[in-house]
Amino acid sequence: MSNLAQLRAGQEAFMNIKMKKIIRVIAVFLMLEMVCSCILPHLQLRRDEEMVMAEAAEPTPTPSLDATMVGQYVLNVGSNFYKNGEEVVITQNTTLQLMYVDAGGNPKPITVASGSSMDISWVSVDDGSKESTVFKVTGADKTGNGIKSFCDLEILGLGFNNLSVEIKATSPDGTSTIKYTWKLFVELAIDINNIGIRESTKYETYNGQYGLRLGQNTDKQKDTLQIFSEDTVTDTEKMYSKYLLMLKRADLLYSYVDDFGNKRELNNFSTEEDVEQDAHLKTMLSEKIIWTSSNSDVAEVKYGVITGKHAGTAIITATTRSADQVSERSISIKVVVVPRAQVNGEEDGKWKSEFSEVVKGSSFTINTNAVAASDLVWTVRSKNKDGKILWSNESAITTNLFKAEPYDTSGEIYFSKVKAGTYYITARVSSQYGETNTSIKKLAITIVVPVSVNTDIIYMNVGDTYNIIDNSTLPGTRWYTYPSDKERVATVSNKSVIKATGTGTAKITLNRVTNGAYKDVFDEKDYDKYIPEKIELTVIVIDSILINYTSATIYIGSTLDMKAETTNSNIVEWTTSDEKVATVDEDGVVTGIKEGTSIITATQIVNGVIKTASCHLTVRQGVTEVTLEPAEKEMAIGDNLTINAKVKPNMNGVSLKWVSSNDKIVTVLTSGDLSATVKAVGPGEAVISAVNQENVIVGFCMITVYEPITKITLSPTEVKAPVADGWIQLHATIEPKAATEQKVVWTSTNPSVATVDEKGIVTYKKPGQTTIIVTSRADATISAMCHVEVLKSVTGIKLDKTTHDMFVGETFRLTYKITPDGVSNGAVTWSSSNSSVVSVDQSGMLSARGVGTAVVMVKTKDGGYTAICTVNVGRVASAIKLDVTKLVLNAGEYYYLEATLTPADTTEKTVTYESSDTKVAVVSKKGKVTAKKAGSCVIMAKTKSGSMAYCAVTVMQGVTGVELSDDVLEIAVGEEYEMDYEVLPKTATNKNVTWKSSNKSVFTVDEEGELQGVAGGVAVLTCTTEEGGYMDFCVVTVIEEVTTVKLDKNFYKLGLNATYQFTVTVSGETASNKDLIWSSSDPDIVSVDDKGRMKGLQLGYATITCEAADGSGASDICEVRVCKLVTDIQLDVTYITLIQGKSYALKATVSPDDATYDEPLWTSDDPEIAIVSTKGVITALTPGNTMIHATANDSGEVSAICYVNVIKPVAATSISVSESEIVMSPGEQRTVAVALVPNNSTENITWSSDNTAVATVDSESGQITANAIGSANINILTESGRKGTIKVFVVGLSRSYVELQQYTNLLLKLEVDGSGSQNFSVRWDVDNQHIATVVNGRVTAKALGTTTVYAVVNGRRLSCVVKVVKIK
Fold it and tell me: What is the pLDDT of residue 1106?
């Protein structure tokens, strides 16, 4: 008896006896992948695809592949194996192999059993219908067995592509088809061998600003592409605004042969138009590769051609997706569009990244190519690139030297109130690229602002002041001296403030000082160029009333705002000499009433003196409305147009100014008073304005200029089509190209035959003829025509038969009928779905070629109507052969006979079987031979046509099975157990068996069947008979206890109503029961569920216990405090600059006020730069930048950040004081400006007074307060001991009130230190000279009354009230 026959007989008996046990065991096996290797080779469950699979090899102890691949076809690529539907990365042209995974998890080559066949088809398509643009596949037989189980794969492009294989297996039991699909992917990567630009000799760079820069980023985009924006380039720079980002496999993608046979190679300078020249490349780079830009305002991308739009950064991403849109891969690169700019009013028309400009005045605008100037990172330094940072929009640094406003609605940044100096201004596209980065280009502009002082005559009233600094570009006082030639008329303070002291004219001369502060902001060679050595100002001081106009002209209905300049606060009255001509209100606002003249007068009474000032006013009739005819007009380039203006009211002498908003579109040729002739010179829109300049009344005419159409060409010009086609799109080509946007008119000469819409779509209505005409709307003489003939269409076709049966070698003709009769095109084509089964010629003649079924189809050429006939072709069998002619079986065993019919494609598949002695062996209809008892017989197989074959059968007795004493068993780790068994039948001679454990790490078994538990788990014990290989199984469970339980937290601050999920570590790994029991010592405070998630219910403490459920006693606890969590932390500062060695105490405000833990935890990102104490005190250690974190001391993870900049200390070498001596009056407060040398010194200064009775000073701010008459020294001290001194004189009059009799006098003295010092220049004055006079401090009483006497000392005004009484 053969081993195969014994195996199959044993399987039948085993299945009958042990079915219930097998079902239980298999249920366990499905949970344990490791058991597959023990069962599958023996169960031999039959499946369709196993009819032709390779015979299983001997099972290996450990499967080669995972269990999910068992019984599956897999794709072998190199040393890797892929299941149906998986993704496969392809890196090079290669050969793939289809393999089958046996029950042991081993991949096997595909072979075919005797009497069977297999056909394998390989297909690669993009989306199930299109021919692949990524791969070319060719099936191959590399083993000589006639099966194309190998596939040669050639890479054509990039991206995803489906690879499908169809396996058609044929055996005596029938035919089955299986289809598998894999997602193949060719990786996306930038071709670094074709970057082409960076420091390359093959292509030139443009000033080092263009092309790929390697390693510029720290993020995933490791490389940066740098290009220009297309709107800022010159003709010679235009190529640098685009970049073709070439992907790997450039040899496949970026070269092609054109229509003339020339080889074309693309490079990084190629454009979208270049890509479109090759259809394969265009398809690949638009359909297989999807290109996107993260910021299309900065850069756009098409076919991988990146176009710069505006300054900034964008991420360009290339993505490819699988046909089912489930899988995708992408690569990205960062693009920097170089910032460029112009300075408004100063530019030469070119956009630049680096340049210098000298600006006039105190304001200027930089116009950049950014969408918004605020998107750029701006930095302004003093003098040059190494100068001090004055301002930046990415930090808190501010300056009083200018005001900068980067707009967020345009690319402009506006600088105003700019003081004289040299400014180095940079703009970067991102803070990622520092100012010192030389590869990524920044905008760098040097702006020079010269000294500019208003030299117009300064008119002042007595007592007025005028600040030279505020009215110039001078940044401070240490640039010039300011002597006045007449101090009785005007004086200048040390703060550059002019004060009018008396009537007259004075000349103020600004003399440039030597070694002034300007040396810090200008180079020495530029002193004379930008800093005048001398500037003269003229000051005229008056003591009267002035108005801002002495003569003026206004128009009826308009107003004029008049202002009066006076030296006091008395009321000013306004009057008009003729209210019918003009009126004036109490505020000086004049309104024109009618034509004429009037005198406007301002009057003020001071101490009885009447002061007046007048303005001669002329009121004229003015234009109130300007209307242009036409108000709107469309023009062709080259056309002229006369525009007429009407004015209201209709008046003579009106002359309008004619202006075009864009001379490149419409220019004014000639202009008169009320008319102008304009000419259209370029396409676009422009506004012609007619302006009455006397009162700025404007009329408008909107003109749209278009390029005229000169020629129209239609494609096609002749159309013949059946009605059934429905429609056709006609294309009109407009010349010149610039006129393509101009409108055209479409018409049909016979709309009942065909109509046409405004887009040129012709719709067929009925058979007939018509002409489609397209005409220029602006010029009807420009047109084109297409002749259209609509034909009668086929509506259907029918065959005389829909099914037909044939035998191989027969012929038959099919006939058809087309409806309706009389169609214009009755041609048809014939086809067969399988010409190897049945072929058809173009007359409808069928020829049966081979066994099978095929569909024959006839199709009309007009309309594509079809009819089909299903043809079945058969073949008779001529011979039969059995797979065995002799067979030896044990009683109870069975064997399936396999019959092979000749020829192989016969359709006669029925075989009948008979046994010569059914007591010895019986046979089923399907050839299953079952042994009954010992003896011999013959099995006969016969076809319907009479062919026969025979098999001699001998039946013997043997082992029929084995049975274990236990189906399921539990033992402990280390426990031993001996398993009993019985070989069936009891009379069997060979009772030898072998034992096997499916997992020796769970339990072991020796040759006597004795088991020993090793570790917790479940495994299967297998007992196999030596004879017949019969098996029985026992599921063995080894029990192991948990040793320890460890929680991730042993103390936790849990928020009220918050939750936390514990993480538990349970040892050991093989414990049988790892379930856990959770409990809370106080569930009202903290609850915990069976998954270990706890929740804080009310404030308080509780203990959470986690215990092993297996009774081992292993457990762990966590002490929990339920608290009110911190919801917010606010720091008193979020950015601070500290000097090395200095400290600062941060103050943190925690919310809510009643948070359980109201003190945060303090940490420093870099303790080598700055450390922070537990109380929040920062101490600066070394120069650099770091961050200090204040983090809530609970589980809420709330925090706040303070950015810390540590700088090196710079010692002061001296102190510069703006005023070494000052004069003050009691009660007055002043601050004197001081500066440390050098000006970047980091030292702090302290202030003190040596005589606090006379003057005190704030120790930090330096504010001086005069307390009493006398003198004091204000001392200024730096940390390193440098000292400066300010001498303070506090002065006062000897009397503040005095009574004098008429005609008597008294000498008032100026008191300093109580000594009556005369070292100060004093100017004396009195409110009312009729009551008293004063000369050099001597007051003489005149008339009865009270007045005030003043002494002005160094700008300080001291007073004494004088009361004159009668002589006693």
Answer: 95
**Do 973 and 906 touch, CB atoms closer than 8 A?**
no
CA separation for the pair 170, 901 (Å, rounded)? 13
How many whole angstroms separate alpha carbon 756 and alpha carbon 758?
7
The DSSP-derived string for 517-530 is GGGGTS-GGGHHHH
Q: Give residue-wise pLDDT tens across range 253-287.
A: 777 777 777 778 888 888 888 888 888 788 878 87
The pairing of beta strand 211-214 with beta strand 223-227: antiparallel
pLDDT at 349 over 80: no
pLDDT at 209: 67
pLDDT digits (tens, 9 = 90+) for 632-652: 998 888 889 999 999 888 888
Give the E-state strand segments of 455-608 in sequence order. Answer: 458-461, 465-467, 480-481, 490-492, 497-500, 504-512, 534-542, 546-547, 551-555, 559-561, 564-565, 573-576, 582-584, 589-592, 596-606
Under the banding of pLDDT at 50, 70 and 90, the label for residue 1319 is: low
State the Cα torsion 1147-1151-1155-1158 to the nearest 10°. Answer: -10
Max alpha carbon distance in the chain (Å)? 177
| 288: DSSP letter | I
The alpha carbon of 563 is separated from its chain's Cα centroid by a whole number of angstroms, namely: 58
Q: DSSP label at 1092? A: S
Inter-residue contact 429 to 409 (CB < 8 Å): no
Q: Which of 291-300, 499-508, 991-1000, 1354-1363 has the lowest mean pLDDT?
A: 1354-1363
More confident residue, 1047 or 133: 1047
| Residue 519: closest CA among 531, 532, 536, 534 | 531
* Amino acid at site 677: T
d(CA 386, CA 381): 8
Task: Decide: helix, strand or coil at residue 995.
Answer: strand
Query: In 3D, which of 916, 919, 953 has the Cα closest to residue 936?
Result: 953
Q: How far is CA 185 from CA 253, 534, 1149, 1262, in A?
A: 16, 78, 56, 75
**Residue 561 to residue 553: CA distance in whole angstroms:** 12
DSSP state for residue 520 in the 8-state scheme: G
pTM: 0.41
- Token readout for 160 is 């995803």
Distance CA 193, CA 201 (A): 13
The two structure tokens encoding residue 1082: 């106080």
DSSP assigned state of 338: P
User: Residues 405-460: pLDDT tens digits?
Assistant: 999 888 999 999 999 999 999 999 988 888 887 778 889 999 999 999 988 888 77
To which H or E segment does residue 1275 belong? strand 1270-1278
Parallel, antiparallel or unpaired: strands 490-492 and 497-500: antiparallel
- What's the CA gap between 857 and 1042, in Å, rounded? 74
Which residues lie closer than 8 Å to 514 by C-beta, 6 or more apart? none
